[in-house]
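Let us work through a complete example step by step.
Step 1: write down the sequence.
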Amino acid sequence: MAVYSVDKIGWSHSMKMGHRCACKGDYVASIEHYLQALNERSDNGALIHNNLADSYMNAGQLDLAVEQAKDAISKAQDKTLPYVTLGEIHQAMGEHEKAVECVHRAQEIFEELMPEMKDALFDTIEEVIKKLPTREKFELASKDWVRMIYLVKYTEATYQMERGLIERHGGTWKGLLKAKKLALNSIGQKYLSSKERLGIKGNDAAAIAKTYGVMAAIIGSPKVKVLEKSATQSTIRVSACWQYSVIRSMGLDQDPGWVNCSFYCTEYINNVARAINQTARFEFESSLPDGNKYCEGIFRIG
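Step 2: predict the structure and record it as tokens.
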């Protein structure tokens, strides 16, 4: 959710209810409250249009979402967040190049306001935040959508570097994938320690799916929805992924020898699953690169 949510001082009852319903996943009710808020002729027009765009997007009404996001951009003094919202909507529509362009625009605006962030690239966002003055540190730490901007920036820089290595040394994406897989060994342990800090109990399929979903939300991508929760089998759905959007926007899916990104994701997620339960495994049943509307896969135990 790329929404205004931190400072609710001055919010009307309708605005608060719109945000509350959205947080509960009741986007139909959220839309009704935000539309009512618009009729109240509030000074928070940009905020309401942006949050309404997010609710329309999550309700699957993408054309209306685009209209509201553009209204938010036209009315907002700081247009960073509305551009991120518009990027998410284009991503949900399968328009990955437009999605990345919107995030680029958000990054440009944001870094004009906070030039300290121009150096944020291969450092994690947490490491960058530590270097900032207290006021800026608090402001950034309270905005999850900032992570999305720098996830895209980091992913692009990584792929540019890797493409350069391939071009200079005559390698292939398949060979690069093999090398990248070796670096995944520590990923599972990071998720396992995070699972314990988050207080998620158990090591069955439901616990693994919940851990992956929560951590994806914290990291900023991808959006993970747990469709099925049981001890032996749990299904997750990934409707949009910034890694895939960057791949599409850079034309990497057209490069000879390029490896389907879902294959790498399978290895990544399996490292998470096996760290939590050695008998667990994960398989994708559908993926965006294969022309499906979303990536969907199953955690299985035993």
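Step 3: interpret the result. The CA atoms of residues 96 and 245 lie 5 Å apart.
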